[in-house]
Specification:
Layout (H helix, E strand, L loop, with lengths): L2 E6 L10 H9 L2 E4 L16 E4 L2 E2 L2 E2 L3 H14 L2 E6 L9 H10 L4 E4 L4 H8 L12 E6 L19 E6 L5 H10 L7 E6 L7 E6 L3 H8 L5 E5 L21 E6 L5 H8 L4 E6 L9 H10 L4 E5 L6 E5 L1
Parallel strand pairs: 1-6, 1-7, 2-3, 2-6, 8-9, 13-14, 13-15
Antiparallel strand pairs: 4-5, 9-12, 10-11, 10-12, 15-16
Bound molecules: S-adenosyl-L-homocysteine (SAH).
Length: 320
């Protein structure tokens, strides 16, 4: 019988992966992963490990939750170590309860490995502190939609003027969030930040108020995944965060290499703020990544290119 690990992958920056998550990825036989996990983490797995995508765009599921639950139980019964990799922390809007219930029913052993949730990651990398002795004594984490219910019953009673409210999956529901916040007697000039792709080199941030934020989103063309933070803590953050000031922030690098993927090499770039994609090429490449790479290249553009040959340290860099 196998064992299932329900693992949080953190918000995206490779160095926010926990040591435990890294160890489990290295030994896993099967990895079932979500859209919001940094896919480069999959390079940590053994070449023999099976990689199964069950990613979700809001409202578009590659695999229905019931199917994911079934797969966990099936693989858990037959294979060795199964890692169910989820973005952020598995217990925060990660539907992990449903998966645990299935594993319990099937009497399969499992462990939960927490991760850094998007609110912590995106706030830190946007220079926002979630609490602050001057202006915020508590934080609420909410989602603007729930299972089978995209509407009115969501309540935000936890929010007050002296708190910070973080909204997950809220981009499609900004007018609703605004309405609910106003019901809590907050002012229209309540500071609001939206951080998309927090902690990745492609992070984008807009800062406004409850009254201006919808228009700012339209102008900035912000995309999911994005986290909404409302509260006075937002106005106390510097316009440009420590992360946005890193020397390679804004660079989108495509690193094409005949050598095997190197986590350390990736961190050389991401720790200086860059967004990076690794593409192994040549007959020895890990072919499990071909489809992923194809998809990634279709959806992204790049500012810088690196080419690395097998057997040579020489690196050629061109700009487009
Ligand atoms: N379990 C995850 C949340 C899953 S819900 C966690 O703990 O972070 C998915 C939502 O999380 C997205 O719609 C978005 O609101 C938020 N999110 C996840 N990763 C993010 C990131 N890197 N930057 C900003 N928001 C993110």
């Amino acid at each position: 019988m196998g064992k299932v690990y329900l693992v949080g992958a953190g918000p995206g920056d490779p160095e926010l992966l926990t040591l435990k998550a890294m160890r489990l990825l290295k030994t896993a036989d099967v990895v079932i992963y979500d859209r919001l996990c940094n896919p480069l983490f999959l390079h940590l797995t053994k070449r023999t490990a099976k990689l199964i995508y069950c990613g979700k765009k809001p409202y578009h599921h590659a695999m229905k939750q019931e199917k994911i639950n079934e797969a966990l139980v099936e693989y858990g019964k037959s294979e060795g170590e199964i890692v169910r990799l989820k973005g952020g922390d598995p217990s925060i809007f990660g539907r992990v309860r449903e998966e645990i219930d299935c594993l319990e029913r099937a009497k399969l052993p499992y462990e939960i490995v927490p991760g850094i949730t998007a609110a912590s990651g995106a706030a830190a990398y946007a220079g926002v502190t979630l609490t602050d002795r001057e202006s915020s004594s508590h934080v609420t984490l909410s989602t603007a939609h729930r299972k089978g219910d995209h509407g009115e019953s969501e309540q935000m009673a936890g929010f007050t003027k002296h708190g910070t409210a973080c909204f997950y999956m809220g981009m499609e529901n900004l007018p609703f969030i605004k309405k609910k916040l106003l019901e809590q007697a907050v002012a229209l000039d309540l500071p609001v930040a939206i951080i998309s792709w927090g902690s990745y080199g492609r992070q984008k941030k807009i800062v406004g108020t409850l009254s201006s934020i919808e228009q700012l989103v339209e102008q900035a063309d912000l995309i999911n995944p994005a986290l909404i933070i409302a509260g006075d803590v937002v106005s106390r953050a510097p316009a440009e965060s420590w992360f946005e000031k890193l020397p390679l922030f804004g660079k989108k690098i495509l690193y094409i290499t005949e050598k095997p993927f190197s986590f350390e090499k990736m961190v050389e770039f991401t720790s200086r703020g860059a967004d990076i994609w690794f593409q192994e090429v040549g007959p020895n490449r890990d072919k499990r990544f071909d489809a992923l790479t194809k998809k990634f290249l279709k959806e992204n553009d790049f500012t810088d290119f690196y080419f690395e040959n097998e057997g040579s340290e020489a690196l050629f860099k061109t700009k487009c």
